[in-house]
Amino acid sequence: MLRNIPSILSPELLYTLCAMGHGDEIVIADANFPAHSAGPTCIRLDGASATAVLQAVLAVMPLDAFEPVPALTMQVVGNPDSVPDIVADFQSILDAAADHPAQLGNLERFAFYERARSAFAIIQTGEHRLYGNIILKKGVIEA
Amino acid sequence: MLRNIPSILSPELLYTLCAMGHGDEIVIADANFPAHSAGPTCIRLDGASATAVLQAVLAVMPLDAFEPVPALTMQVVGNPDSVPDIVADFQSILDAAADHPAQLGNLERFAFYERARSAFAIIQTGEHRLYGNIILKKGVIEA
Amino acid sequence: MLRNIPSILSPELLYTLCAMGHGDEIVIADANFPAHSAGPTCIRLDGASATAVLQAVLAVMPLDAFEPVPALTMQVVGNPDSVPDIVADFQSILDAAADHPAQLGNLERFAFYERARSAFAIIQTGEHRLYGNIILKKGVIEA
Amino acid sequence: MLRNIPSILSPELLYTLCAMGHGDEIVIADANFPAHSAGPTCIRLDGASATAVLQAVLAVMPLDAFEPVPALTMQVVGNPDSVPDIVADFQSILDAAADHPAQLGNLERFAFYERARSAFAIIQTGEHRLYGNIILKKGVIEA
Amino acid sequence: MLRNIPSILSPELLYTLCAMGHGDEIVIADANFPAHSAGPTCIRLDGASATAVLQAVLAVMPLDAFEPVPALTMQVVGNPDSVPDIVADFQSILDAAADHPAQLGNLERFAFYERARSAFAIIQTGEHRLYGNIILKKGVIEA
Amino acid sequence: MLRNIPSILSPELLYTLCAMGHGDEIVIADANFPAHSAGPTCIRLDGASATAVLQAVLAVMPLDAFEPVPALTMQVVGNPDSVPDIVADFQSILDAAADHPAQLGNLERFAFYERARSAFAIIQTGEHRLYGNIILKKGVIEA
Amino acid sequence: MLRNIPSILSPELLYTLCAMGHGDEIVIADANFPAHSAGPTCIRLDGASATAVLQAVLAVMPLDAFEPVPALTMQVVGNPDSVPDIVADFQSILDAAADHPAQLGNLERFAFYERARSAFAIIQTGEHRLYGNIILKKGVIEA
Amino acid sequence: MLRNIPSILSPELLYTLCAMGHGDEIVIADANFPAHSAGPTCIRLDGASATAVLQAVLAVMPLDAFEPVPALTMQVVGNPDSVPDIVADFQSILDAAADHPAQLGNLERFAFYERARSAFAIIQTGEHRLYGNIILKKGVIEA
Amino acid sequence: MLRNIPSILSPELLYTLCAMGHGDEIVIADANFPAHSAGPTCIRLDGASATAVLQAVLAVMPLDAFEPVPALTMQVVGNPDSVPDIVADFQSILDAAADHPAQLGNLERFAFYERARSAFAIIQTGEHRLYGNIILKKGVIEA
Amino acid sequence: MLRNIPSILSPELLYTLCAMGHGDEIVIADANFPAHSAGPTCIRLDGASATAVLQAVLAVMPLDAFEPVPALTMQVVGNPDSVPDIVADFQSILDAAADHPAQLGNLERFAFYERARSAFAIIQTGEHRLYGNIILKKGVIEA
Questions:
Q1: Do J33 and I21 count as a contact with CB atoms less than 8 A apart?
Q2: Residues in Cβ contact with E96 at an 8 Å cutoff, skipping those fewer than 6 apart
């Protein structure tokens, strides 16, 4: 734990967020996401919800202002237009955190898996709600 | 996640609990415990409280019936006889989980650190309450 | 060993099953299967039959309900329509374990090898019966 | 698997038995033995009984004829003179395998643990019977 | 880089400070300190002064309130009572950062080396001033 | 060394032969073969001839009965139809070892190298005779 | 630190610059550059500006005289012809260091990333100014 | 050092030359060659000239008699037909060492780099003369 | 294999002999020697006799002329004064190889094991004769 | 190679000299010194003499001015007062390099070995002259 830093950010996760640069992406994944087989380093946070992790990550990491859609969720299989509760929660957290409006985009299930393969890292949370997955693209930090 | 197993038990923690044998000890530590420098493997569960972890561990791991005091907490510095709330919570969870009454013993702060050095592993939880530390000795599983 | 968990599931196998996510596949292989050269991590259970391992795995891991055929066996070389005894045994175990009917599909020998290359892991059992191989796709665990 | 070699001997176990020399010791341990924390390499054979493993090991490895007591079991805690069934089974297997009579000695529980710390390796079997532990000292193979 | 965290704290240093627990010690060392041979992990910050690093570390890490002297510098060889400018600077930074007055102690050169051997980590800065070394003991973070 | 197992089979070689499954291939190579650069694990047996190694390997490993040509040698460069003495020796050993007739095939030098790249392992013997190379495909072991 | 060598060159950076040969390229990157995900070894110099690092590197490493454009910067996104202050600073340092005039070329943002993927190493500085990135190609050192 | 073996051949270089087989290639490179980034293992001999190393290597390693051109140097950039002094020196050493005449071929600079990528190893010498690079193909050793 | 170097000396063994310095010791051990558990690196030469290995080693490595007894064998258990045939063979080989007479000393079995623990390396040969063990101390090579 | 740095200093040696701090010691050893078994990292410079290496090291590394005897050689066995030529050469190089007179001390052969065990690193040169060994203690670099 450290002062003034959300305590849910583990040493390994802080290392990762700090090492990421402009344009690198990180995945916050729910408990059913195939995170270990996706390729990138998998950081586990079994006791935490995806929403708590999103809030903590956005406290220290800006989203990419160079991209119109700096955050992506997964479409419901068979019902791509529905918005699960957890995705609505993600949007609320983004709205509260943003220094500029950040629009949530989304991807079909297997396209989401494919995009996750080139992420910097994947955080596997203990989120039980299905579709509790979000990809974030890191922005620039100006002095 | 797996069926019928508390979801807070991560793959690494399940591995550890399963690999432990009769008499091996594991430490559940709070967020301020110097777990990384103690020597044994440190398994982080940043998002979970010590009480939630204790409950989950006792769901799959029996305490040692060969020992009169199979679980140990840390004494309050300067007030060894006081019982912090979290220690009382530990005792309640033990009482509810036990197939036989398991008495909590305790150790002075630095003796507790010393005992932790020879543990099988240490779980660093996100427990914010001070003195949220407990050492458990694994018992025998009979067929 | 742990309470309430089949004792045949070794620490490494528990780790693996728990780390797998929705859609990841695991192979239970007989003693003649070329498991070490297939690519994925090979977990050995030399003293156990493939049927005992299947039963233990299904006790903790659900099959994928998103897929019509979440389990695959290997066709007999030169006689693709025959059903070896062990494959019949696999079907019985699936029928007994399932919360929903799971149909066994099958693949030609070299197609089976190819599919195994992208599995999460392969369990090499001590099964002496030929064709004692099965691929399982993990499902979602709902809270 | 190989021809003319008990199939329960896994690649890693064959490696180990072959690499051992005159006077090196190996432990066959039951499922509750604290094998991972003892120090030597731990070879798991979760699906096999201690007696099946002993039989297979003695098929390829001679006991040390230089020592009067080349095999040791663990005394029952609180009743050092009792002979558990599994120890009697060990003796029968030794009698059947031996080219010369090999006497079983025994050690108090913690002395047994201490002796195990300097073994070449420990085999953790799936043996459920308590006290299913035996230390074997390898003999010379003459051309 | 991250928001609201001094940018001089590299990913590895953030990891380290976050992983440290109550009572763990870290050394901030000058450019001539024998940091690589001391034993603990050495984290290099070649471009930074010791004072800039001290300021950044104290922004996220509290000193130990359980100890009367939670910070130690090195005595000048042959003149143990003198106070080099950089040590005076260290004291000023501590005074400005502290939620409670933290007194600087000091150790003879080789005693300082010895104490550094059991630190959690050593940060080798680019500090050119001699005696630019300080040991800090981490305190508790209360929720 | 072990009882009833050819003593020339080293621990690493026994491990390898045992870990191989149906259809995996192993190369027995002469002392001039470019074994280290071929890709597969290289097991050295510098003091042994290729014929002694072949005899020992066939004592524990069956050839693949599913394949008409389960063993391959290297053609003489510039004289593909000639049969070097050592190849004739290989055939004699195969004839003596076989539970069914196993026909030796052969490959042009660079095709042999290419095939060796996907072998399970390569044994580099001390064989001084040129063309002392043979690829063996492992068969099934029936209980 | 060493005599006559800029003290900002850390041991790892000296190793790298010395190991590079004719035509190898190194990237000096600003604090926002995605250096850890680019592929090459990432050497961090969090406390140093990109200009200080460039000056130190050119003190020991010549640019490639075989190439007309041995150094490359990144074009401003959306304004490829503008010359940011830091790029002007880079040019001044090159002019002062050169034994022969070295012309700065530049690449579009993603082409710059692509080129960085095949560099020998990337130095991540603490440079806060955007576009503080430069690729250098090492020249020949004549005796 | 060993008896009867050129003392300039370090343990690692002896290992490498001995492990190479028929047709494997090794590069002797000058001090400016980009050896570390080429791919193969790089063995440094900073204190030795390329000619001294060539002489020592040829004392223990034969060139390939199956190939008309078993040794290759690098063409001078912009002047492919010139023969630098060091290349003439290489030819003299080959002439003196050979049991059969070995003709030096050559490759354009980038073709030489490309060929070096698939070498068994690269020896980086301290040779200051430009174009002090040579690729050697190992021959057969007959008993 | 290399020219003018005994072909039984494998790459790893050549590396080892060359890396050894004045006063370092190497053990040539028979097939029953507990070489893997002794501590030093174990180099296997399963197909070779101890006498063939001794001859090859002495061809490249001098014995220590600073020590009166630069070579040691193991005493026969229970009969320390007897001289096994293989020890007589060792003496003959030493006599033939020496540039100065080298006297064989000997050690009791467990004292020999103890001495072997601090050797540079142990060569495990395929020697079937008991007591086929010898420790050699390397001498100085003068230019 | 780098500009203005002696080309005999390899990347690994530069790394080492730069990482050393005040009071750390490095050994320059002759070709017969038992450098690999001494414990510290061994850096080989097979083609270089001990005197050339000493000269190059002193060009970048100061000796410790806090110690009256910052450099030590090895006494001749049986003649501790004699001064071998190479030791006289070492003294001349020290005299020429020093910013202050540095006196050479010496140690008996086995005391020298013992001191070398705690060095930061050992450089094994190709020096053929006996007693070509020297231990250097690094001093402070003032800005």
A1: yes
A2: none
User: Three-state SS string across J3-16, please?
Assistant: CCCCCCCCHHHHHH
Instruction: Answer whether H11 sits within 8 Å of J44, measured CB to CB.
Output: yes
pLDDT, residue G98, reads 67
J126: CB partners within 8 A, 6+ apart? H7, H8, H47, J31, J45, J46, J47, J48, J49
Chain J residue nearest residue I64, CA to CA = J32
Ramachandran bin of C75, using left for φ above 0, alpha for ψ from -120 to 50, beta for the remaining angles: beta
| Mean pLDDT, all residues of chain I | 95
Put simply, the answer to whether D33 touches B20 (Cβ < 8 Å) is: no
What's the token pair of residue F4? 């009833």
For domain B21-137, the CATH architecture is 3-Layer(aba) Sandwich (3.40)
Q: Averaged over B95-121, what is the pLDDT?
A: 91
Residue C39 neighbours by CB distance under 10 Å: 12
Listed in sequence order, the residues at least 6 apart from J54 whose beta carbon sits closer than 8 Å to its beta carbon are J28, J90, J93, J94, J134
For residue A28, which phi and psi values (nearest 5 degrees)? Answer: -100, 120
So where are chain G's domains? 11-137
Cα separation, G26 vs G125, in Å, equals 13
How does pLDDT run across E123-137, given as a tens digit for each residue?
999 999 999 999 999
Closest CA to J15 of G46, G18, G121, E31: G18
- Is D48's pLDDT higher than 80? yes
- Asked whether the beta carbons of residue H20 and residue F36 sit closer than 8 angstroms, the reply is yes
d(CA G21, CA H126): 12
Instruction: Give me the architecture of the G11-137 domain, per CATH.
Output: 3-Layer(aba) Sandwich (3.40)
J74 vs E101, more confident: J74
How far apart CA J41 and CA I18 sit, in angstroms, is 17
CA distances from I139 to D47, I45, I107, J47 (A): 53, 23, 21, 21
Judge whether C113 counts as a catalytic residue: yes
> For residue E73, what is the enclosing H or E element?
strand E71-74
The C-alpha angle H135, H139, H143, rounded to 5 degrees, equals 150
What is the pLDDT averaged over residues G117-129? 98
pLDDT at I99 over 80: no
Answer whether I138's CB lies under 8 Å from I21's CB. yes
* Amino acid identity at C119: A
Q: Which residues of G form the catalytic set?
A: 22, 64, 113
Helices (H) and strands (E) in chain A, counts: 4, 6
Mean pLDDT confidence for I117-130 = 98
Q: What percent of chain B shows pLDDT beyond 70?
A: 97
Rounded Cα–Cα distance for residues I112 and I131 (Å):
11
Q: What's the count of helices (H) and strands (E) in chain B, helices before strands? A: 4, 6
| Minimal C-alpha gap between A33 and chain C (Å) | 5
Active site residue A128: no
pLDDT of residue F51: 98
CB J124 within 8 A of CB J35: yes
Q: Quickly state the pLDDT bin for C84 (edges 50, 70, 90).
A: very high
C99 among known catalytic residues: no
Amino acid residing at B12:
E
CB atoms within 10 A of CB F13: 26
H110 phi and psi, to 5 degrees? -75, -25
Q: Is the pLDDT of residue F142 over 90?
A: no
